[in-house]
């Protein structure tokens, strides 16, 4: 447990003691054979890892600028290039657990990505060329689903 906590702390810039404790507890629950397989996959790769992904839809890759483990070169050379439509963003002042360290910043990036990319209320489809129609459908989607954007996370709740 102490070793896990120390490693997680080295890869983070903003994790609180409570965040570190929670990640350590979760990490301790992972079976040893799963950890072994993950380490093997990281160190030796997967046979499909060098090939383009069969997934052709939009992809958002998010990393923290202070992450010493997932580097810009790794993201550009090993992740983004595998996808037909990938966008990579970097969150300032965040380490390896960017979604825990800076959740509002990650949510804002997700909001932007979704707004740029997805428009249909009944499913996922690429953005069309009619920007006004796309925005109308996006707002309809937000109204018919209980999706709360990062821009409204700190706003008072709306009256029902």
How would you briefly describe this protein structure?
This protein has 160 residues and is mostly helical.
Question: Which descriptors apply to this entry?
Answer:
single chain, 160 residues, mainly alpha, two-stranded parallel ribbon, 7 helices, 47% helix, 9% strand, disordered C terminus
Give a description of the structure.
It is a single chain. This protein has helices at residues 2-10, 17-28, 32-44, 72-79, 98-101, 103-117, 131-144, and strands spanning 58-64, 85-91. Helices cover 47% and strands 9% of the residues. Mean pLDDT is 77; it is low at 141-160. α1 (2-10) crosses α2 (17-28). With 160 residues, the chain is mainly alpha-helical. β1 (58-64), α4 and β2 form a beta-alpha-beta unit. Strands 1-2 form a two-stranded parallel sheet.
Write the layout of secondary structure elements.
Layout: H1 2-10, H2 17-28, H3 32-44, E1 58-64, H4 72-79, E2 85-91, H5 98-101, H6 103-117, H7 131-144
Parallel strand pairs: 1-2
Helix pairs in contact: 1-2
How would you sum up the global shape?
Answer: globular
Report the radius of gyration as a whole number of Å: 19 Å
Strand runs, count: 2
Major sheet size, sense and barrel closure: 2 strands, parallel
Mean pLDDT rating: 77
What separation lies between the terminal Cα atoms? 45 Å
Q: Indicate the low-confidence ranges by residue numbers.
A: 141-160
Q: Please report which band the strand proportion falls in: under 5%, 5-15%, 15-25%, 25-35%, 35-45% or over 45%.
A: 5-15%
Order of helices and strands: HHHEHEHHH
State the helix count: 7
Structural class label: mainly alpha
Helix coverage percent of residues?
40-55%
Biggest sheet: strands side by side, in what order? 1-2
């Amino acid at each position: 447990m102490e070793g896990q906590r120390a490693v997680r702390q080295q890869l983070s810039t903003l994790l609180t003691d409570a965040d570190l404790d929670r990640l350590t507890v979760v990490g301790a629950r992972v079976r040893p054979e799963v950890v072994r397989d993950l380490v093997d996959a990281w160190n030796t790769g997967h046979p499909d890892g060098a090939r383009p992904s069969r997934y052709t839809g939009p992809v958002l890759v998010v990393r923290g600028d202070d992450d010493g483990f997932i580097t810009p070169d790794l993201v550009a050379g090993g992740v983004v290039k595998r996808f037909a439509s990938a966008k990579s963003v970097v969150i300032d002042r965040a380490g390896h657990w960017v979604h825990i360290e800076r959740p509002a910043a990650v949510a804002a990036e997700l909001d932007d990505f979704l707004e740029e990319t997805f428009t249909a209320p009944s499913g996922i489809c690429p953005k069309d060329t009619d920007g006004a129609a796309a925005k109308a459908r996006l707002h309809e989607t937000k109204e018919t689903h209980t999706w709360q954007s990062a821009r409204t996370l700190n706003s008072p709740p709306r009256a029902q």
